[in-house]
Specification:
It is a single chain. With 146 residues, the chain is α+β, with helices and mostly antiparallel strands. 17% of the residues lie in helices and 41% in strands. The protein has two helices and ten strands; from the N terminus they run H-E-E-E-E-E-E-E-H-E-E-E. Strand 1 and strand 2 form a beta hairpin. The protein is globular.
C-alpha cells in the first residue's frame, strides 16, 4: 500500500514538474475567420471573400464584439473549459447586431445565422475551432494579435 502511494505521489509530482501548459483561455483574445468546414459534401469548405470582415473579440468582461461582414454585434459569451484541455463548451449571444444589407457572402450569411448555436470550442496550433452541434460544421479562426 505504501509503495502504491509513493508511486502515485511521484507520478503526480513528475506530471506537475513537467510543466504541462495550463488550459488556454479565450478571455481577452481576438480572432479572424479563416473558413467554415461543413460535414455536408454539398457545402464543403467555404472561405470568406475578405477574412478581415469577420472577427470576434472575447472580452474578459464576458462580452464578445463581433464583426460580421458590414455589420457589428455585441453580446455575452461564456466558455466552460474541459478539465486539463484546450477545449470545452461555449455559449455566444444572443448578439445585438446592426442590420445593414451586406454584399452576398455564403460564409457571412451562414455565420450570422449560426453564431448563437455554436456549442463547443477547441484551441489548437494557434487556431480557434468553433463547432456547431451534431457535427454540422466548424468555423476555423486565426488569432489576431494587437
Amino acid at each position: 500500500m505504501r509503495m502504491t502511494s509513493a508511486i502515485l505521489t511521484t507520478c503526480l509530482a513528475l506530471t506537475a514538474c513537467a510543466g504541462a501548459p495550463p488550459p488556454a483561455t479565450l478571455d481577452g483574445t481576438a480572432w479572424r475567420l479563416a473558413m467554415f468546414q461543413s460535414n455536408d459534401d454539398a457545402t464543403g469548405t467555404l472561405r470568406p471573400a475578405n477574412a478581415d470582415s469577420f472577427t470576434m473579440a472575447f472580452g474578459k468582461d464576458g462580452q464578445v464584439a463581433a464583426k460580421l461582414d458590414c455589420n457589428r454585434g455585441t453580446g455575452p459569451w461564456r466558455a466552460e473549459p474541459a478539465a486539463g484541455s484546450n477545449s470545452g463548451s461555449i455559449n455566444i449571444g444572443p448578439l445585438a447586431t446592426t442590420r445593414m444589407m451586406c454584399p452576398p457572402d455564403p460564409v457571412g450569411d451562414r455565420l450570422a445565422r449560426d453564431v448563437d448555436t455554436l456549442r463547443s470550442y477547441r484551441l489548437q496550433d494557434g487556431r480557434l475551432y468553433l463547432m456547431l452541434p451534431a457535427d454540422a460544421g466548424v468555423y476555423v479562426w486565426d488569432r489576431v494579435t494587437p
